[in-house]
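FORM 12-B: Structure-to-Sequence Request
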């Protein structure tokens, strides 16, 4: 489980009564672990470790101000872009909310720092990468305690920092944690333990590539697009912007007008494990959803029907978990069991999104 919002009581890396430890000749760590946000969230945001600014807040300021102090405006932009935060939602409020849908922490929960060439302790990007070789025991102890067994509610882990070297080290770490359930998706994303792990630009003010990652068509933005692909975000927008929109060769979705019209059912199938609702087999039901965030906020989504006449439901976004069903009756039965449904914009049906049951509305 994830630790509760607040300061964490953990002395695994420290001698009795000590507040500092020196796990390597060049490294020191301070006993100040913490957790912010929800304990059963859908999203988990992980930095590497608290920097000096955050560590000082931990000792001298309000606890709720510690996490990502000095970089929250950029982090809020990232999380709204990914859909972890609603358009009008405040990152400050999310970090301080113990019952929220986002949890916040770091790969190493305590503050760590390494001596640079001048002998001064720092925690910058180049030094961070050295940690995986110089203090692997600290990283292993912390990740095994706080990442090995997370609640099933966590669907996506957002890791701050998308330097190729850092990603390589992190994915190797995740593979070690979940050797039987690891699969690399692309250069910035992997799935492990039934969750998606993605790397985004670090929101630190020292990151000069941040705006390029957020907005431009540069190499930095290529990594953002890979995150979007992994999350399944904004694909309909991408298809619409191309001069010749590309649609999935296996997909068919007739255009429909808003408000949504009924979807013609095909004869009911006897799907294993699903009890079809006691309705007339020729009854037409309306299912729809409204996009709540991102570039397509307000857009209407309807069940996405493939060329074989089937719809897709799934508990996760991964292909091996998808179930094809033949009627809206069966779709509704699965939704009521907690399954998500592939839905798309009828005007631009390429790249259907997986929509949670709570966001799907039923019409008569």
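FORM 12-B RESPONSE
SEQUENCE OUT:
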């Amino acid at each position: 489980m994830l630790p509760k919002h607040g300061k964490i009581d953990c002395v695994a890396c420290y001698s009795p009564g000590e507040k500092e430890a020196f796990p390597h000749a060049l490294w020191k760590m301070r006993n100040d672990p913490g957790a912010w946000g929800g304990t059963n969230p859908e999203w988990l945001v992980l930095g590497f470790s608290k920097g000096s600014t955050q560590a000082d807040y931990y000792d001298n300021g309000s606890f709720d101000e510690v996490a990502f102090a000095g970089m929250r405006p950029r982090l809020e932009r990232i999380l709204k872009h990914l859909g972890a935060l609603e358009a009008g939602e405040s990152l400050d409020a999310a970090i301080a909310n113990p019952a929220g849908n986002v949890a916040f922490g770091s790969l190493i929960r305590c503050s760590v720092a390494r001596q640079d060439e001048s002998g001064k302790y720092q925690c910058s990007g180049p030094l961070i990468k050295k940690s995986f070789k110089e203090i692997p025991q600290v990283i292993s102890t912390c990740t095994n305690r706080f990442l090995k067994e997370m609640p099933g509610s966590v669907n996506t882990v957002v890791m701050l920092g998308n330097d190729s070297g850092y990603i390589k080290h992190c994915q190797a770490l995740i593979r070690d944690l979940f050797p039987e359930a690891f699969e690399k998706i692309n250069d910035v994303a992997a799935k492990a333990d039934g969750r998606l792990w993605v790397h985004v630009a670090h929101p630190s003010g020292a990151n000069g590539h941040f705006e390029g990652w957020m907005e431009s068509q540069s190499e930095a933005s290529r990594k953002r697009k890979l995150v979007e692909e992994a999350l399944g975000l904004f694909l309909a927008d991408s298809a619409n912007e191309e001069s010749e929109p590309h649609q999935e060769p296996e997909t068919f979705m007739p255009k429909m007008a808003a408000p949504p019209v009924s979807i013609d059912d095909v004869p009911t199938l006897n799907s294993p494990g699903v009890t079809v609702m006691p309705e007339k087999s020729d009854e037409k039901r309306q299912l729809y959803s409204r996009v709540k965030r991102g570039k397509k906020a307000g857009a209407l989504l309807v069940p996405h029907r493939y060329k074989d006449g089937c719809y897709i439901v799934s508990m996760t976004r991964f292909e091996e978990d998808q179930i094809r069903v033949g009627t809206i009756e069966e779709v509704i039965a699965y939704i009521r069991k907690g399954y998500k449904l592939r839905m798309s914009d009828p005007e631009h049906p390429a790249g259907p999104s997986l929509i949670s049951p709570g966001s799907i509305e039923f019409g008569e």
